[in-house]
């Protein structure tokens, strides 16, 4: 009888463990939560890139917290403009919004709203040793989010790391570099200095 | 006697003449030359500072640019990551012909050398591709936009390059040309299927897409070099991926 009870208990524990494993939250869930929250596609991709490379750096509980934060942002800043919301603009859920509709909702936000969303993401990152940077893109419509994570398993005391995502403008400057004018100015300054020096030397020689 | 006097006179006269011409020459050399040089250098400096310099600077870069050796040396520098940052090597599940396969991917840090790009038909050979599109990264080679998918992953892989260096020959890419992109973990083959000119504030072509593609772009000035608010994009359809065996460095 005791054997039977222990076997049942063991089976129950195994089943419980397996079910926990089966429902453990992973990075894909966090990315899906961002999509469902109506986050711009480029920001979802940035999140996906960062979490893919760091998927082992976070626990299931931490992914749950990320999802909760994203859901809170959705409920407070996106849902009011969607189906059933008090400021309804579109008859859709946040997950169904097109990119243009997301932009239209973003335009309704006040500066305080934008700052609050940005601060929420930065503070969430701080909890997990992730430096989050939020920047407005050149088109003044989209936002770019960068993230850097220091690795706790690094041998160095500085917890070495680097960044996978950085706040690059989606379309880069690919002509002659902007830095060119600085280089030209430096060349011009050196040339002028040399010319001045040459004139001074020749004038001195002439006097002699 | 008179001859001697006359010779002396002539000699004196010749000497006098020589004296006056050398005086002019000396005045010209010692006084005017430095000022002429100064004027010449000032004009050069003025030209260098003048804005259209940007238009001819690319041609100068091409003529006196970095040697391949210098480029290789620069490759080892990456200010965006710590020297002892661990390699980001992970296993991923990939769907190949309806079947799930496990492969290994090496995630690049920002600024890392990431891939090599080739398009033989357009004369683009072994173009180095780095992770990121910041100005300093694009000095070393083409840049993978870190808001696009990693090479080998489903979606839009976006690569930018300067029109006077690495992507000088990008406009020569024609529909049907084969483009390969090789990283340490996979080799992707693409076929060019579209050419588009878009404004720099239109992100349609660099944002995520549902299909698997490669988008390469550079500044577009109707064939001229230099900065522009327009970009020429060469859009390629993914043809195949060869996954490589990756071993972690010890």
Task: Give a written overview of the molecule.
The complex is a heterodimer of chains A (208) and B (250). Chain A is mainly alpha-helical. In chain A, 57% of the residues lie in helices and 10% in strands. Chain A contains seven helices and three strands; from the N terminus they run H-H-H-H-H-H-E-E-E-H. A three-stranded antiparallel beta sheet of chain A has the order 1-2-3. Chain B has two domains: 2-50; 65-243, Sortase (Sortase, Chain: A, Beta Barrel), CATH 2.40.260. Chain B has four helices and ten strands. In chain B, helix 4 links the parallel strand 4 (124-131) and strand 5. Chains A and B meet through helix 3, strand 3 and helix 7 of A and helix 1, helix 2, strand 1 and strand 9 of B.
Topology, please?
The complex is a heterodimer of chains A (208) and B (250).
Chain A: H1 2-22, H2 27-36, H3 41-53, H4 60-78, H5 99-108, H6 111-127, E1 130-136, E2 143-150, E3 161-165, H7 180-207
Antiparallel strand pairs in A: 1-2, 2-3
Helix pairs in contact in A: 2-3, 2-4, 4-6
Chain B: H1 2-49, H2 53-64, H3 68-75, E1 88-96, E2 99-107, E3 113-119, E4 124-131, H4 135-138, E5 142-144, E6 156-160, E7 178-182, E8 186-199, E9 213-219, E10 230-243
Parallel strand pairs in B: 4-5, 6-9
Antiparallel strand pairs in B: 1-2, 3-4, 3-7, 5-6, 7-8, 8-10, 9-10
């Amino acid at each position: 009888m005791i054997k039977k009870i222990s076997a049942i208990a063991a089976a129950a524990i195994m089943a419980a463990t397996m079910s926990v494993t089966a429902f453990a939250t992973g990075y894909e869930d966090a990315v899906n939560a961002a999509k469902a929250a109506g986050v711009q596609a480029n920001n979802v991709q940035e999140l996906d890139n960062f979490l893919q490379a760091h998927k082992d750096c976070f626990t299931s509980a931490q992914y749950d917290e990320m999802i909760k934060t994203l859901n809170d942002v959705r409920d407070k800043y996106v849902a009011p403009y969607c189906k059933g919301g008090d400021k309804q603009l579109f008859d859709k859920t946040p997950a169904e919004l097109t990119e243009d509709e997301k932009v239209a909702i973003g335009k309704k936000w006040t500066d305080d709203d934008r700052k609050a969303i940005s601060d929420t993401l930065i503070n969430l990152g701080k909890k997990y040793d992730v430096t989050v940077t939020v920047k407005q893109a050149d088109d003044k419509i989209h936002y770019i989010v960068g993230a850097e994570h220091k690795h706790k398993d690094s041998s160095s005391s500085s917890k070495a790391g680097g960044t996978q995502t950085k706040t690059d403008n989606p379309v880069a400057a690919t002509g002659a570099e902007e830095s060119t004018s600085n280089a030209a100015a430096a060349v011009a300054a050196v040339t002028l200095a040399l010319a001045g020096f040459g004139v001074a030397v020749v004038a001195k020689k002439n006097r002699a | 006697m008179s001859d001697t006097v006359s010779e002396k006179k002539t000699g004196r006269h010749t000497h006098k003449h020589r004296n006056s011409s050398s005086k002019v020459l000396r005045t010209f050399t010692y006084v005017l030359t430095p000022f002429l040089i100064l004027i010449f250098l000032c004009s050069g400096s003025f030209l260098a500072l003048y804005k259209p310099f940007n238009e001819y600077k690319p041609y100068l870069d091409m003529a006196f640019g970095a040697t391949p050796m210098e480029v290789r040396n620069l490759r080892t520098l990456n200010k965006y990551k710590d020297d002892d940052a661990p390699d980001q090597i992970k296993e991923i599940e990939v769907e190949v012909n309806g079947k799930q396969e496990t492969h290994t991917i090496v995630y690049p840090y920002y600024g890392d050398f990431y891939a090599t790009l080739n398009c033989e038909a357009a004369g683009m050979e072994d173009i180095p591709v780095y992770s990121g599109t910041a100005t300093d990264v694009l000095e070393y080679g083409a840049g993978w936009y870190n808001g696009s998918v990693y090479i080998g992953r489903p979606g839009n892989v976006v690569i930018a390059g300067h029109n006077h260096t690495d992507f000088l020959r990008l406009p020569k890419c024609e529909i049907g040309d084969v483009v390969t992109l090789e990283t340490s973990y996979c080799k992707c083959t693409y076929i060019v299927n579209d050419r588009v000119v878009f404004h720099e504030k239109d992100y349609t072509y660099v944002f995520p897409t549902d299909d698997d593609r490669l988008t390469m772009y550079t500044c577009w000035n109707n064939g001229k070099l230099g900065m522009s608010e327009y970009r020429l994009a060469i859009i390629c359809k993914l043809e195949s991926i060869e996954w490589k065996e990756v071993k972690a460095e010890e």
